[in-house]
Design a protein that fits this description.
Layout lengths: L9 H12 L4 E6 L2 E6 L19 H14 L21 E3 H4 L6 H8 L3 E8 L9 H17 L21 E4 L2 E6 L3
Helix pairs in contact: 2-5
Amino acid sequence: FFSPGFQVAPETKAVMKWLRSIPFVLSASLHGGELVVTYPYDYSRHPMEEKMFSPTPDEKMFKMLAKAYADAHPVISDRSELRCGGNFVKRGGIINGAEWYSFTGGMADFNYLHTNCFEVTVEVGCEKFPLEEELFTIWHENRDALLNYMEMVHRGIKGIVSDKFGNPIKNARISVRGIQHDVTTGN
């Protein structure tokens, strides 16, 4: 998952441990520097290839999740190509992470490969380091999109896997025909 020599920060290790201990199913990472929603894979299947579309087996679900956020965001959903993030307008404000730029060690890829959690990355604005007085506007622009995204937790597989006595089965593998990526039940 990580390239040779890659150092994992202590806070990243803590989040990885936390993700493995609690059965999260949906998350988002918020970044600055652009205005777009990206989804896995962030690391190209061919590491020497830049800007290479690298879909997961759950490509349709990830696109739906990213679109749920983008469509509810007042600026990302704006069709003007002259605005911040306008170069993603023709893509609906979303892009496969590796197709935009490939990098190793991203949390969205980790979550998908090592937990049941589906994560997108939300680039919340074109300022990498927004000024304090800009934060309220950024929050206001992203609030409804975040709520819309959180409601997506009710999509996809959900329920209780139990034995014939009604007892929950821990770590049961769930397979969906046509998608080569299984999930497991929680505690």
